[in-house]
Give the backbone structure.
Amino acid sequence: MPELHANPDWRGPLPTATGSITFVDALQMMHDSPDLRPIGRIAEASNASFLCEITSGLQVIYKPTRGELPLWDFPEGSLAAREVAAYLVSDVLALGVVPPTILRDGPAGEGAVQLWIQHEGVQRAVDLVNTSNDVLRRLALFDAIINNGDRKGGHILPLADGRVLGVDHGVTFSTEPKLRTVLWAWRGEPFSDEERDALTRGLQMLSVGGTLRATLAPLLHATEIEALLQRLSTLRAADRFPEPTPDWPPLPWPLV
Ligand SMILES: Nc1ncnc2c1ncn2[C@@H]1O[C@H](COP(=O)(O)OP(=O)(O)O)[C@@H](O)[C@H]1O
Ligand SMILES: [Mg+2]
């Protein structure tokens, strides 16, 4: 496997099929585009997900709320908002591990719209997981924070510059511990300074009057925001990656 870039710019421009674009520009274009034109259906998706083109020619994935399959453990029609909440947490904590994601109207009604990323493919992601590559620590921390119930190989997008992004964050932010992931290699390991900083930042931004609290309020239930604050605080106090809980399956199925 080729060596990864030692210190990639996590918030730098993202690769797309038509060139690279900054987070800010992508958000603006996705928001402003009058068009959201379906050009394909994502076959491997578990919910109705469409590859779409917006006016600028950028490609996005569109997951209409109406196409969400009901789940026993999440309120109906809440997955798209969770996708957006996950993006906001990644952004506010300066992690840069989620492609720009917004809620907006589309041909099948409101849904999550996320920038479609040009990545190195799932085999590369699986290789990184199998060799416990430290570049994945950032995503492992993010998953512990958002309580991700579905981090499988196919939800990890490796970029050519060494970054790894995560997608499919619909089953997140439950008030119950549901961390289910292929990224357990760092369980029990102490956090780095950078990881500590991300947690501290999250705690500040989620405090009463903090900006993250205000942006998450329309997307998550108040009890889920409190649970997020509690997870940040527990992780910061433990100062190490969490261990799996015995009463919840620790691995997603299938793994990829
Ligand atoms: N933003 C994205 N950029 C590139 N590929 C993506 C993106 N989002 C999803 N994918 C690809 O599409 C597949 C299906 O999307 P996913 O978000 O998992 O849908 P679902 O919620 O229906 O399972 C993913 O496994 C991944 O390979
Ligand atoms: Mg999926």
